[in-house]
């Protein structure tokens, strides 16, 4: 909804909030060279650990907050990450993902995986399932060089192609300004409504 606000580097890398309540938290992982999001991926296990810390500290409400991992890495076939893709992928399988993660975590000798698996294991079976139900993995995401093309593609649906560069630069400039304010602590969030209004007015 337009009442939602976007927060950066607060509860998570990116969070969508309404009246101060996090509705969705997004962890982003960008790599310049291709990587696999396998069951023993450090990115995956660090993300799991970070979210569980948030649950333990009551910053994340397990029954109210969606958890999304957006990464340029690719989930291999038959991996837990593949099984946590969005529902419309027709590959989502929470119970199989749970089995995969338990096996990988319990058999690992990597200190980072062991640390974060212990947090996961400490949730207990019921909370583990609920936790994974809240998670969506968006893998093989566009890298930073492709983002401009993606945004221009969305804008071009309603604006045509004549002024795409100009509109994109306006939105990019406004967005960077808002991000700087957040990172400097001059404001806490970016208004989704303000973003929509500016995008429409510049078209």
What does this protein structure show overall?
The protein has a 6-stranded mixed β-sheet. The two termini are 21 Å apart. The longest helix is centred in the C-terminal third of the chain and has 21 residues, at 164-184. The model has no long low-confidence stretch (mean pLDDT 85). 50% of the residues lie in helices and 15% in strands. Helix 1 (42-56) runs parallel beside helix 4 (111-121), helix 3 crosses helix 4 (111-121) and helix 6 (144-159) packs across helix 7. With 203 residues, it is of the alpha/beta class. The chain has 8 helices and 6 strands. It has helices at residues 42-56, 80-83, 94-107, 111-121, 125-133, 144-159, 164-184, 192-202, and strands spanning 5-8, 14-18, 21-29, 66-71, 135-138, 190-191.
In terms of topology, how is this protein built?
Elements: E1 5-8, E2 14-18, E3 21-29, H1 42-56, E4 66-71, H2 80-83, H3 94-107, H4 111-121, H5 125-133, E5 135-138, H6 144-159, H7 164-184, E6 190-191, H8 192-202
Parallel strand pairs: 3-4, 4-5
Antiparallel strand pairs: 1-2, 1-6, 2-3
Helix pairs in contact: 1-4, 3-4, 3-5, 6-7, 7-8
């Amino acid at each position: 909804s337009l009442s939602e606000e976007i927060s950066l580097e607060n509860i998570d890398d990116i969070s969508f909030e309404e009246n101060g309540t996090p509705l969705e938290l997004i962890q982003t992982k960008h790599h310049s060279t291709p990587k696999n999001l396998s069951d023993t991926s450090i990115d995956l296990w660090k993300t799991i650990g970070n979210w569980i810390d948030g649950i333990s500290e009551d910053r994340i409400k397990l029954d109210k907050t969606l958890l999304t991992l957006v990464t340029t890495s690719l989930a291999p076939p038959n991996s837990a990450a593949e099984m946590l893709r969005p529902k419309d992928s027709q590959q989502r399988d929470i119970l199989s993902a749970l089995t995969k993660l338990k096996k990988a975590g319990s058999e690992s000798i990597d200190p980072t995986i062991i640390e974060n698996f212990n947090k996961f294991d400490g949730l207990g079976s019921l909370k583990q399932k609920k936790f994974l139900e809240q998670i969506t993995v968006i893998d093989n995401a566009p890298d930073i060089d492709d983002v401009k093309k993606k945004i221009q593609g969305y804008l071009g649906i309603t604006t045509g192609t004549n002024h795409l560069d100009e509109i994109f630069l306006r939105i990019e400039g406004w967005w960077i300004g808002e991000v700087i304010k957040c990172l400097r602590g001059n404001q806490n969030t970016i208004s989704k409504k303000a973003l929509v209004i500016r995008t429409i007015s510049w078209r």
